[in-house]
Amino acid sequence: MDDKRIQNLRPFGITYMKTAHREDIRLEQQQIAVDLKDIYDQGGFELVEFIEEFPKEGIELLEECYNDAYHDYKIEKISSTVSIHNLPDTINKKGDRSLAIEDINCSTHGKLMEVEGVTVLATKIKMAMKKATYICTACGEKKIQNIENPFEMNFEPVCPKCAQSMALIEDESEYTDFQELKLQQPLELMSNPEDPPKYISVLLENTPGIYNGRVKVSGIPVKTQKNKKIPLYDLVFKGIHCKTVDEKLESDFTNEEIKTFKEISENLGIVEILSELLFPEIKGHESVKKAIFLQQIKGVKKGNCRADSHIIIITDPGVGKSKMLRKLALIPGNAYASANMSSGVGLTAAVVQESTEIGENTYVVKPGLLIRANKGTACIDEFTTMKKMDSLLEAMESQTIHINKGGINTKLPAECAVLAACNPRWGRFDENVPVMDQITIPAPVLSRFDLIFTIKDTPNKERDREIAHHIVKVHRAYLGVGKTEDLKFSSRKISGIDVDFQFICKYIAYARTKAPVVSDEAEKILTDYYLEMRKGAPQITARQFEAALRIAEQYAKARLKDIVEKEDADDAIKLMSDSLKEVAYDKETGQYDIDRIMGLSKKDRIPMMAVYEIVKGILEESVSGLVNVEDIIEKSAEKGYSEKQVSESLRKLIINGDIDEPKVGKYRVI
User: Fold this and answer.
1) Is residue 12 within 8 Å of 44, Cβ to Cβ?
2) Would you state the torsion angle of the CA atoms of residues 661, 667, 668, 670, taken in this order, to the nearest 10 degrees?
């Protein structure tokens, strides 16, 4: 090592620390992160080159420079810990792209680099030895050994004085928090997205604990050897600095972009226009498209009240639900999964035991879809094929997921909207059976959705002709043949502005920045709607009122307003009504009854409760512990209930687990 070279670099390093990290010094910070690109931009080319050649010595030099700068200001000595991040292109470039996980191989072993990855596994925090203190068992001589690689501490130190073996003094050794992450290279950063996923194990020191999200890690690939008899090595990434990367939509806008957004927002029906352009491949389903578009914009975040709307689409096969979900997953920050390939914990988070680089049967956290979609939308296809849906309840309502297992106690953020899609119970809707009887989603989960849409594929000659014509146009457009202005996948002009998918994504991002306040007029409209829907009985609940308020805010944000006005409230009520009419409207009473979403309308619940009490009453006098159906019908008739009502009530009581039928025609309370 050239000491003269280090001494020549020291003055620049101290000056840089005094300016760039003056605030850290004022706040008496002893752990700092140094932006290497900023050093390069400030003219520290030689210092950056030295750090690239000798990462360990370079970081030690930065620590010394910070300590000296700190001493000059505070007149006191400290021992700091410095990490480096944001490597300049001179270090972290390969061709026209930044280095990535796929570039970690023998050629990059031991070299400084920075990569991005999505956390797919995280161990709990462990304690790793940083400095080992040894003592000679013969003469008492002590020796301190720095541990650079925890996998290579397999030596027996010898006393430099008497050549006897030395023993480790654990209490006098130094330790640090240590964690392993397994990262997957994001698809958009792959040289060839068709290649198998690329993974790397990352070892982090001084970590507060990272369990989810997308991260950028600077560090050095190091080798590990599991079988000392075979000269084969695994590569792991020794992290120097790790920070989370915001996957949200771009939030920096030029004045020109903002002007363009405002111009296009003045179009009447801008919500309808952009929602159609978001899914140009699919014909019809206007209310569903509007709801999904507004869902991306989100409501206004207020304290613990969620701003996200949850939507579920229950459809006949072949109407395009999966296409909509996959298209929506292309928006940055959104994520897609098919529930038939995931369990309930697979969508939230799982704690399992796995073999990792730092130990066998280590408890690790595996973040699920809702955590990966934090701040975005989780698109869940084939929703009804998922087992243990109750695991979604906390995530959908409080938008957090608590983990308490295997020594890992943490709360993970799941602040995302849920867009779910599925088919009805028998694959296709049966017109002779009530819609809610064909939905197999548990009532507590279903009630978490703000909007529930059903799409039926019923034959209609004119509509079918339009759909067929639209499909042909889609195929031609993809081939670049016969493109028309109303179906142009690259872009389409609206008020002289080219609008494509990327533009819509940016528009959504800008609309999210708005925080409109509900006007008195809009408040009155929403309140009157709520009171009207609750006339005579509690037909809908405050949960639906909050959903309507969120949607009204989304309409106002989509129109780039600062105030939620009458038209926003009216449109929100219409969208809510479009959703409720199939699943909560009782044709017999002519009223909306939200209990139908819970699997039981008010008119069904009353006789069911009566039949349950009748069964319990007869059982108290029964010797056999069973009740004959004839006795139930007879007692129910005395209270004015028909045989049909009794049969239906018994069926639903069995489904709910309140009673069972161990023998044909004989019942008992469970």
Assistant:
1) yes
2) 30
Helices (H) and strands (E) in the chain, counts: 21, 30
Distance CA 616, CA 621 (A): 9
Closest to 2 measured CA to CA, from 48, 57, 56: 57
Query: What are 329-369's pLDDT values in tens digits?
Result: 888 888 888 887 665 567 887 777 777 766 666 777 878 88
Long-range contacts of 645-654 (CB under 8 A, 24+ apart): 645/607, 645/611, 646/607, 646/611, 648/604, 648/607, 648/608, 649/604, 649/607, 649/608, 649/610, 649/611, 649/612, 650/611, 652/599, 652/600, 652/604, 652/608, 653/608, 653/611, 653/612, 653/615
DSSP bridge partners of 662:
none
Instruction: Give CA–CA dist 585/592, Å, rounded.
Output: 4
Alpha carbons 388 and 10: distance in angstroms, whole number: 60
The domain defined by 602-669 folds into: Arc Repressor Mutant, subunit A (1.10.10)
- DSSP letters spanning 364-417: EEEE-HHHHTTTSEEEEESGGG-S-GGGHHHHHHT-EEEEEETTEEEEEE---E
Q: Is the pLDDT of residue 311 over 90?
A: yes
Tokens 């959703």, residue located: 579
CB 374, CB 415: distance < 8 Å: yes
In CATH, the architecture of 97-244 is Beta Barrel (2.40)
Burial of 303 (0-12, 13-18, 19+ CB in 10 A): exposed
For residue 291, count CB atoms less than 10 angstroms from its CB and return exposed for 0-12, middle for 13-18, buried for 19 or more.
buried
Residue 344 has which token pair?
A: 């309930």
Which residues lie across from 105 on neighbouring strands?
none
Query: For 557-597, what is the HEC assignment?
Result: HHCCCCEECHHHHHHHHHHHHHHHHHHCEECCCCEECHHHC
Of 570, 546, 599, nearest in space to 309 by CA = 546
Q: What are phi and psi of 573, to 5 degrees?
A: -65, -40
Residue range 160-179, pLDDT digits in tens: 888 888 888 988 888 888 88
Whole-prediction pTM: 0.73
Which CATH number does the domain 255-512 belong to among 3.40.50.720, 3.60.70.12, 3.30.70.3550, 3.40.50.300?
Answer: 3.40.50.300
The CATH superfamily label for domain 3-91 reads mini-chromosome maintenance (MCM) complex, chain A, domain 1 (3.30.1640.10)
The tokens describing 177, both together, are: 């928090």
In the chain, the amino acid numbered 587 is K
Q: Are strands 591-592 and 659-663 parallel, antiparallel or unpaired?
A: unpaired
